[in-house]
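Please annotate this fold before class:
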Amino acid sequence: MARDEASDNLPADAPDGDDVDMDIVAATYRTLSDAAAFDAMVMAWERKISENAQEEATALYLGRGLTRHLGAAKALIARVERPQQESPIEAAVSSVGAPAVVLNPAGVVVAANALAKDRFASRQGQVDALEWLHPASAEDFAAVRRSAQDGGNRKHAIVRTVNAGAETGIAEVYVIDGVSGGERYVAVRALEIVWSAEVDAQLAEAFELTEAEREVARLLFETRSSAQIADRRKTSAQTVRTQIKKILAKTETASQVDLIRMLALLSARASHGLTSDEDVWHDPWNNERVIVRPDGRKLAYSWTGARNGRPVLVVHGLTLGYIMGARIERQLKAANIKLIAITRPGLGNSDQSPPGRYLADNAAAIAQLLANLGLKNVPAIGLASGSLPLIKAAADNKGLIRSILTVALPLPLNEAHLMRLSRFQRTTFALARRAPEVANMIAEAGYFIIKRKGIEWYIDRGWDSPSGNWAAQTVNNSEISPMIRNAALLTFTAGPKEFMREMRMHWADLEADMSRITCSILNLQGLGNRGYHADDAALFDAMCSGSDTEEVPDAGYFLPYEKPDMFLERIIQLADG
């Protein structure tokens, strides 16, 4: 951006520094209203870092003017209300305060809000058994689902629902497009009816419905039957049909289904007031347990597979989570493997680590969980950044871990490694080390945009590959995206500060810990992972005598989702010892 163009967006007391400082300030303020400005802000910070290319560990000099304006921008971000969703998937579960869930055509839960847990028993990343669907509506639901899968004409329906207590209700089922437009999904939203005075008043004021028409609208929503409405109102079915036609005309709705949908939205908003947030963490395996650590903090974990099977620990990363998909989890059970997943401190339902002890506390949490479960000499899986505390735990506690399988291990983080990453990643990593407060502000701005654009916006900036763009292909795959979303939800419910603590952890020097490890380590690296290079494998193997790297073609950072059969085979081999 040119200096005069940037100055149009600057406060009157903008810093008198060079062009890059002015670009930073201009883009930072614009980020709140223009998501494209985030990329301009990151690009400006990349220039700032390159223009101050001292030793990589040196603190980045900002100056008082730039520091002052960044502080003001950070305060503004904190004050701005949560933005409207633009991602169709997130919007489907958060646009009204009613139970809502989005499924892929195979029936896997892609997104669900907090209310959906009780109403639909839906958990992100798991197959929805459709136990909430009334048998009488099975064909209507199947028709909409076929439209999502094969491009049929049935795009929406109103279906009956039933809960465990045999209480019935109704829900709206409709097809939505994914962010890329290539994949389609099925959204289900409960139509909660609380016919309050507010709903009645809105119909009278906005659509000029008469008292009789408002009563017919209410009964239509409850019964969906002209005959039943006529019976309750002691009038003829023809009179009711005429009234419904007038209501359709006044509300400008094309059909009774559209009218019911509109009435449901009015009722849900009146019932719940605000929108229902998606970003509440629920364990997708529905097996979560919580232990209390020696200092009183909570530590959550869960499991899948065989209840009394051979234990294998898994330590999740940021966007590589612990769910593997229903088919893999069934095969783990068949192989008599119990996969135990720790929820790392500060994420999900686990309490935060003390300041300055993030990596050490994560490692201690692993040891404390295994001790609480009475386990030692356990095989373990480290997914991306989750590998770092796992390695430290193995080094600090001899005999705790028998063998380790890592995926997309981020060691070593150095300047050569940074240059292979996406602009967002390399700039954020550099700032996390050289200007932590700036990195925190960028994370807060990013979180603000994610609320509006959806998690795909983050994925697009975090991962790409010059040899096929594996991450983009993966995140747009409707069979894989539920698992990535689940992992991201675990991270993003924690907030931007916890995200940046995770980023700073990558700079930890684990060379001494690696030299103390006595167990074997197999490091799986997808060749489509932009951050990986064969030189990293050589350095890693030199740091740990018992390590080996397996390069996997046709896979990238999300290898467990891209090569599930191969990954399952490695897990079984790990358990077999």
In short: The chain is about 50% helix and 15% strand. The radius of gyration is 27 Å.
